[in-house]
Amino acid sequence: MIVRLLRIVMGTLLALGFAQSPEFSQQYLQRLGGALDALRPIVEKFDAAANRAGLTREAALDRLERNDDPLVGDVGEATGDAVVRYERLDRQYETMRNAGAFGRIAAVLSAPDPRMLSAAWDDFAPAIPTTVEGILLTLAGFGLGWFGVGGAARARARLRRSKAPAAS
Fold first, then answer.
1. pTM beyond cutoff 0.85
2. Which of 13, 28, 86, 118 could be bridged to 39 by S-S, CB 3.0 to 4.6 A?
3. How far, in Å, CA of 80 to CA of 46, rounded?
4. pLDDT-above-70 percentage for the chain
5. Which of 48, 66, 68 lies closest to 57, judged by CA?
């Protein structure tokens, strides 16, 4: 009786969590797009300035970072960080845009941007799963909880039986 209740509770909790993953990945994707929109003009202006100076992006960043003026060096380092972050977020954004719901979830799980993940989580608004993917993930979560608790209960029962003294 207790095992069945635990299976239902765990299945329900995991179902609810799994059901929200498509919506969370969608909100994460939207945040990625916003971050790229903010970083793109910075990177484009820097690239244009480097081009006018006859330099590649890498050479221009190197020149700034090696400058004896600490302010210029700090600006070069900050710009370099922004460029690296832009490139990383852009790769993840393209991966997520070209993937289906399950692929977007995998992309978030495989290489999340910590700041983006935290911000998306802070503003996350759960949604009722109305897509096929959302319903399938709900069922998968419930099944994982149901069978996980059932398997743990069976393993525990086997362990008890193996430790019980043999009747003579």
1. no
2. 86
3. 10
4. 97
5. 48
Helical ranges in 98-131 per DSSP H: 101-110, 114-123
What backbone phi and psi angles, to 5 degrees, belong to 103? -65, -35
Per the model's pLDDT, the better-predicted residue between 76 and 19 turns out to be 76
Rounded distance, CA 68 to CA 32, Å?
35
Do residues 140 and 18 make contact, with C-beta atoms less than 8 angstroms apart? yes
111: helix, strand or coil:
coil
In angstroms, the first-to-last Cα distance of the chain is 31
Spatial distance between the Cα atoms of 140 and 63, rounded to a whole number of angstroms: 53
How do residues 64-114 score in pLDDT, each as one tens digit?
999 999 999 999 999 999 999 999 999 999 999 999 888 999 999 998 999
Backbone angles phi, psi at 166, to 5 degrees: -70, 135
As a three-state string, the secondary structure of 49-102 is HHHHCCCCHHHHHHHHHHCCCHHHHHHHHHHHHHHHHHHHHHHHHHHHHCCCHH
Contacts of 49 (CB under 8 A, 6+ apart): 60
- Listed by start position, the domains of the chain span 2-163
